[in-house]
Amino acid sequence: MYKLYQYIDGELKQNSLSDFLQVRKKDIISFAGAGGKTSTIFALANELKDMNYRVLITTTTKMFLEKEAITVQDEKIIEKALQKNKSVIAGTDLGKKMGAFDEDFLKKIINYSDVTLIEADGAQRKPFKMPRDYEPVYIENTNKIVYVVGMTSLGQEIKNLSRADIIADFLVKSLDEKLSVKDMIKILLSEKGAKKDIGKRDFYIILNQVDNEVLLQYAMEISSVLNKYGIQIALTKHKI
């Protein structure tokens, strides 16, 4: 079960994902990072459906092609689906993956939704990453960015992470060295890392996969540091 907490003033306080992100009608929320973007998107979509919001789920890169996805570039079909189902997944058919519509069409169909959730980054199913020059892919009218972090990446060798060469160069480490809490904080605070291209948009970090007590302690430590920089940060626990 998806549970979200914020670590505030030395206490874990449970919150809903929609409240943490302060979701409002006409929000366009892009998700970047690694280690749970898609699951976070669907968890938020379910909350918003219960609030009677019409939710469009799409991508500016690639994401897994769900069987119920609409892959026809037709405004009317998507508009009717949003009216009927409240939540619609839409993009181009790339086989096992779903790709991006062109930006002009995407801007048109966004008008039919109350909230749009966009997967804007790829990570090859790995738990942590740094972006290349062309990543993430944020559309101009995105107003909120959520950076997802897989906490299981801590202690892993850098070579096992996404964009390992970039991470190693940035940290001045070898590919065989392991990712530490200090390393993660450095990347999360960097405009070459999590904060790349965020501009003046609202920015949130979610520490995902906090599924044991050791990772919980690390997540609280990271939250304490990032809180001092005014970053809105939460952690998710699925098992504990």
UniProtKB/TrEMBL annotation:
<protein>
    <submittedName>
        <fullName>Putative selenium-dependent hydroxylase accessory protein YqeC</fullName>
    </submittedName>
</protein>
<dbReference type="InterPro" id="IPR036565">
    <property type="entry name" value="Mur-like_cat_sf"/>
</dbReference>
<dbReference type="InterPro" id="IPR017587">
    <property type="entry name" value="YqeC"/>
</dbReference>
<dbReference type="GO" id="GO:0005524">
    <property type="term" value="F:ATP binding"/>
</dbReference>
<dbReference type="Pfam" id="PF19842">
    <property type="entry name" value="YqeC"/>
</dbReference>
